[in-house]
Design a protein that fits this description.
Length: 271
């Protein structure tokens, strides 16, 4: 499948996801919700999938974008059958899958000497294995339907550095996402499927808010404020900072990009 020549398309056409169907894992809140929101705004039909209830997210997008076509479904990315059911649901609701966003992820904190085998497996199962299976199942559907698509993996600056203690499993999972992204790009490119990753720095989400409580309880102060103070751009990220880059990656603006990881980090990794 060749890369189309789009030099005569308008910017509006290049940015549009009109006619495309996207699935966002872990899309009920946080970064996933922000990605789903920008994709809906760009004209995609979106299936929000999450281990938690998706009703609130779906209703909020329907309120904001009126006739937006958004559905929700339950998904546990640590369960291959659940991922396959999510793919089926997307096809059943919207007829196809063009964009699959592996966003669902967890970041519990535990020192390496106390980290159990189960602690390790849980993070790797959700963050890495779930992304692999999601990509494989979505790509199989795209190839079977005879069209290309985009797989977008949410990595992290923890894919470039250790960052700090307590997250050996998380850091390993996110480093591996960069390798998975490259390998998928190599094998899926000939099928017209582009594979990219985005690597956010600290982003203010419900997941981070929960961790923040633990940070304060441990007497370590305000994680968000201290992180913001050391970033060149002077603040931590908000979910929409990541969503705008995700939209770029999924759109035809990025038509000749695959296999790479885009930092969305306010200068964090450059420090
Ligand atoms: N927030 C940050 O600072 C930050 C930085 C870099 C990377 N990331 C990555 O971004 C992604 C989203 O993070 P966030 O901060 O928005 O998290 P969050 O905890 O705020 O939201 C994560 C969503 O994923 C869902 N989820 C969790 N486990 C799931 C499972 N097994 N199956 C399906 N859904 C599941 C949750 O229910 C939730 O809706 C993660 O992959 C995370 O590693 C976050």
């Amino acid at each position: 499948m060749g890369v189309p020549d789009v030099k005569d398309e308008s910017l509006a056409e290049l940015m549009s996801l009109g006619g495309r169907v996207a699935v966002v894992t872990g899309g009920a809140v946080g970064i996933g919700y922000a990605i789903a929101r920008r994709m809906v705004q760009a004209g995609a039909r979106v299936l929000i999938s999450d281990i938690h209830d998706t009703d609130e997210a779906v209703q909020a997008l329907a309120r904001e974008f009126g006739d937006a076509q958004v559905k929700g479904t339950s998904l546990d990315v640590s369960d291959a059958e659940s991922i396959r059911a999510c793919v089926e649901r997307a096809v059943q609701e919207f007829g196809r899958i063009d964009i699959w966003v592996n966003n669902a992820g967890i970041y519990p904190s535990v020192p390496v000497l106390e980290m159990s085998d189960d602690d390790w497996d849980r993070v790797l199962d959700i963050n890495l294995r779930g992304s692999f299976i999601g990509a494989r199942e979505a790509a199989a559907r795209m190839v079977g339907a005879g069209h290309g698509g985009v797989i977008l993996n949410v990595a992290s600056t923890a894919g470039f550095k250790a960052g700090g203690p307590g997250v050996a499993h998380y850091v390993s999972s996110k480093h591996a996402i960069l390798g998975l992204t490259k390998s998928l790009a190599v094998e899926l490119g000939p099928h017209g499927i582009r594979v990219l990753a985005i690597a956010p720095t600290l982003i203010d989400t419900p997941g981070i808010a929960a961790g923040q409580e633990a940070f304060r309880a441990a007497g370590l102060g305000d994680l968000l404020d201290s992180y913001a103070a050391r970033l060149p751009l002077g603040r931590i990220g908000v979910p929409d900072d990541v969503a705008r880059v995700a939209l770029f990656c999924a759109s035809d603006l990025a038509l000749f990009m695959t296999g790479s990881t885009l930092l969305v980090d306010g200068g964090d990794v450059a420090l």
